[in-house]
Specification:
The two termini are 22 Å apart. The model has no long low-confidence stretch (mean pLDDT 92). This protein is mainly alpha-helical. Helix content is 68%, strand content 0%. The protein has one domain: Acyl-CoA Binding Protein (Up-down Bundle). Keywords: Lipid-binding.
Length: 87
């Protein structure tokens, strides 16, 4: 798959995710968040962490756990996750 195809599929998955109406388990939402952030912004850095409230701490932790993934790997996992939820 070319980078252009991957980007198109990623955008399509983002649209699907944006239009989802069902509530998802928190762990799934955190995984989706982390894949999206890794795909679009790269590895999390301490200066990007923002506020230190509990919600953001969980989000940052989820992102840090997948920081070893490349942007393309994160995009693929994001696409797979969204597609598995919207079947």
């Amino acid at each position: 798959m070319s980078d252009k195809d991957l980007d198109i599929e990623f955008e399509e998955a983002y649209e699907k995710a944006s239009n989802m109406t069902e509530a998802l388990p928190q762990d799934v939402m955190l995984r989706i968040y982390a894949y999206y952030k890794q795909a679009t912004q790269g590895t999390v850095h301490a200066d990007r962490m923002g506020s230190v409230d509990l919600r953001n701490a969980f989000k940052t932790n989820a992102w840090m756990q997948i920081s070893h993934l490349s942007s393309d790997e994160a995009k693929r996992l994001y696409i797979e996750t969204i597609n598995s939820l919207t079947k």
